Amino acid sequence: MSKFKTICLLLIVSLFLSGCWSKRELNELAIVSALGIDKVDDEFDVTVQIVVPGEISSKAPTSGRSPVITHHAKGKTIFEAIRKMTTLSTRKIYFAHTQVVILGDDLAKEGIGEALDLISRDHEFRNDFDVIIAHEATAKDVLNILTPVEKVPANKIINSLRTSQKAWGSTISINIDELVSTLSSNEKSPLIPAIEIQGDAALGMSKANINKVETPVILKYAGLAVFKGDKYVGLLTDKESQSVSFLSDKIQSTIEIIACPKGGTIATEITKSKTKIKGKFEKDAPKINVHIEVEQNVGEVECKINLTSHKNIDYVNKKTEELIKKRIEKTITTIQQTYRADIFGFGEELHRADPEKWKKIKNDWPTIFQDLPVNVEVHVRTKGLGTMQNSFLNKKKKE
After folding, report:
1. Is 127 in contact with 187 (CB distance < 8 Å)?
2. Are 170 and 241 in contact (CB under 8 A)?
3. Which segments of the chain does DSSP mark as H helices, in order?
4. Contact in structure between 91 and 28 (CB atoms under 8 Å)
5. Strand 130-134 relative to strand 100-103: parallel, antiparallel, unpaired?
6. Sheet strands side by side (includes 254-259)
7. How far apart are CA 322 and CA 335, in angstroms?
8. For residue 291, what are the CA distances in angstroms to 134, 274, 335, 374?
């Protein structure tokens, strides 16, 4: 091909290239780190937490200003409320970096389906942000609380969620895709982590909240919010939430406290947990078997016990098994009798086990679920004793 023809071809191809026509400069955008949605009367009250770039830069001198600002507006729809915010913001409100969406307590109890429609539909939102319930609070108040350590409160909310899930087990993160998928299912009800404000919310909005050694107002995870359909029906306690984490195979690590044979306690660290749930039908009657394998280390010994003895290690294993099993069984009963919502996915397991038999009972599943037999087995192995085999209390006894 001649040089002239090559040049002509390149010129023609360039006509079809869009270039950077849609690019946005950072100094033209108001970057949203968190979105809050409340329901006030018949309107949505929408709050956005916007990052102030100059205040979070490590190189910028401290000006004393807040690292974030919030805007809020009301509308018959969330879309309308967001558009109304253009009268408040000097920059284009940009949602592509949203980390978390907070849903207010009243909205959650009324139903979250409508609120999720826009944020799951709009192309500007990513599909990996977390959804959290504001327990006994508004989303607006949660997003107005300033937090120490993390300059951007949205970062604190997400980092605390991840840390708690990894080290304690009372929270389970859920992103928008997972939530919408669960809400669309007839076989499982969603769980959403709940956060609460401890202290005076009005004080938490001032810089004084982060200028004290002991922060007077904090954001703290309260447990897991139980939903029936798209409505918030109750909050699980800390221990109930841990039991749900075991059943959901989400436990990465947590702590168990067991009693010693002659008084005192031992704290063990769960280092590994694997849960298998199997559904089956016996003479057309549905049943669930739960099998949990747990590994743990001895973390703290507050009693006189010889841990070099196989008999005592067997005791520690057995007591941990009994503790976890009893707590899980109690949580299952509470969910079945109080909330009557299949948050465990037992229906999904029965569907997989026998689609034809599941088809016969699925319309009556909410009623059947209340009395569904669930057999729980827990096996625990102690793998490590820490840097010393016995407590100095045991050594003192021998002396």
Report:
1. no
2. yes
3. 3-14, 53-56, 78-84, 105-110, 113-121, 139-144, 153-167, 176-183, 201-204, 238-247, 310-334, 346-353, 355-361, 365-370, 392-398
4. yes
5. parallel
6. 254-259, 265-282, 285-302, 374-384
7. 20
8. 33, 8, 19, 11
Contact by Cβ (8 Å): 48, 32: yes
- Measured between alpha carbons, how far is 332 from 67 in angstroms, rounded to an integer? 43
Angle between helices 176-183 and 113-121 (to 10 degrees): 130
Q: For residue 281, what are the CA distances in angstroms to 247, 290, 357?
A: 20, 15, 8
User: Rounded to the nearest 5°, which phi and psi values hold at 179?
Assistant: -65, -50
List phi, psi (to 5°) of 62: -70, 125
Tell me how far the alpha carbon of residue 209 is from its chain's centroid: 25
The DSSP symbol for 336 reads I
Q: From first to last of the 399 residues of the chain, give the pLDDT tens digit.
A: 566 556 656 656 555 555 544 455 556 889 999 999 999 999 999 999 999 887 766 565 555 678 899 999 999 999 999 999 989 888 889 999 999 999 999 999 999 999 998 888 877 888 889 999 999 999 999 999 999 888 899 999 999 999 999 999 999 999 999 999 999 987 899 999 999 999 999 888 887 788 788 889 999 999 999 999 999 999 999 999 999 999 999 999 999 999 999 999 999 999 999 999 999 999 899 999 999 999 999 999 999 999 999 999 999 999 999 999 999 999 999 999 999 999 999 999 999 999 999 999 999 999 999 999 999 999 999 999 876 666 655 555 544
191 sits in which H/E element: strand 191-198
**If we measure between CA atoms, which residue out of 241, 115, 133, 233 comes closest to residue 180?**
115
Q: What is the DSSP string of 61-116?
A: PP-S--SEEEEEEEESSHHHHHHHGGGT-SSEEE-TT--EEEE-HHHHHH-SHHHH
Nearest to 144 by CA among 86, 107, 117, 104: 104
Q: What span, in angstroms and rounded, lies between the C-alpha atoms of 228 and 314?
A: 41
